[in-house]
Amino acid sequence: MHTKSGRSDLNLIFCSFLAIFLLVSCGLTASQRKALKEFSSATASIGEVTSAELVRMRNEIIQMNVHRLRITEVKDMKLPDDKDLDKALDVEDVVERVRAAEVLQTYGELLLSLAEDTQQEELSAAADRFVQNVKGLPGVDRKLTQEQLDGIGKVVKTVGGLIVEHMKAKAIKLIVRDTSGQVEHLCDLLEADFDHENDRLAGQFVASTEKLLTASGKALERSGTLEERIAAIDALKLGRANRDRREEVLDRISQAVVKIKSANAELDGSLNSNKVTVEDLKEFSTRVRSLIDALKVLK
Hints:
The protein is mostly helical. It has helices at residues 4-24, 30-71, 91-115, 120-135, 146-157, 164-193, 201-221, 226-271, 279-298. The protein starts with a helix and ends with a helix.
């Protein structure tokens, strides 16, 4: 015969297990987890590609301008402007945009770590990388408050134990919600930088490309030495390669960055409802895969 105390202990144990079961079952659904993995993986990839492409653009602008000076006659030079080899892509400007791209990359990596079976130490490291990258942004571009950054670090550190799935879901929802403004702002900056129709980063890259192609055409029309013709042909090859890269890479980066905003908003909505609509997420992932395929060919 059970005593009153024994029955109370059994009830307490039962209630404890029931509470744990309910918390464990409050993790992400299979559809939500799949959408999260696709988004976070694509975002990490686009951040990494964008960062590398920004550095490459600056280096290529310098190389194109050097080639153009080499094959341009003195009377056709526009001094002192032609001596400014990196144009609008000064080191400071590129560093700021690389930081923006690295924030997107580490944001994706942090979400992916939470979506997968990642050890606590690796989770904390992913959170620290994201927070430090946000702190490295210029003040005007930093949209997350210190309180929000501290909150991200704390919520990630609570992931663990028997209720790990519940705590992961809580951390993911908080991070996606709190970072939405930051992500949107950085996407706007990078979208403008990769829009080749303005005079910002991609615009300067395209301008240097077209000037080089024009100069190489004129140089080939002149009757010069073999060495001069070889220099003109090399310049023409470089110009055409970078024109192809603009069409196949820069435009795709711009389109993918635009899609991050709507995909992130869609992810936020899907995490806070039982209905998952992932059209923007799928389109974003498709654009990123297309970009990665193009990069493999153009390397």
